[in-house]
Fold this sequence. Notes:
By secondary structure, the chain is α/β, with parallel strands linked by helices. It has nine helices and five strands; from the N terminus they run E-E-H-H-E-E-H-E-H-H-H-H-H-H. It has two domains: 2-93, Conserved hypothetical protein from pyrococcus furiosus pfu- 392566-001, ParB domain, CATH 3.90.1530; 123-181, no CATH class. Strands 1-5-3-4-2 form a five-stranded mixed sheet.
Amino acid sequence: MLKTVKVSEVKPNPKNPRIIKDEKFKKLVKSIQEFPDMLNKRPLIVFTDVDNKYVVLGGNMRLKAINELKLKEVPIIVADEWTEEQKAEFLIKDNVGFGEWDWDNLANEWDPEKLNEWGLEVPIYNDVNLDDFFEENNTPEDKEEKFDILLQYSEEDYAEVIELFEKKSGSKEKIVLELLKK
């Protein structure tokens, strides 16, 4: 059941494995500032801890943005009936992106400037030389893997991605983990 509580009654989850930094965090803050009603449609999912504080399971970065905006109240849904395992599972599944963007649909049906304003990083191909990624000795699988990773990064990240590909010594997952460490 949806209810509204004081922001001071809600605390971030210390086990939250996902963060948003810098420009992406600023975009999240701006999106909540410009469209606060979306919080009512996507409330924080919380549980009650031993100190009777609400701990966030879903929406840790939204809570951080809410605090940045100095909002006084926040909509929540309490999930106290969940087991510890269900809470842990939700914490991860809520942060996993299962789907993929349909880039063709986005390119043809949506305004790229609006998408960017709303926090979706649309790949910029103007300055990208894909030949850098697809050396002659790459297999088709290598090319597909590198292109998939390229789509996930903005222009600012381009140099770092190129450097990692040049040093590539493993799987896509290893490269992504290297990027996440930075």
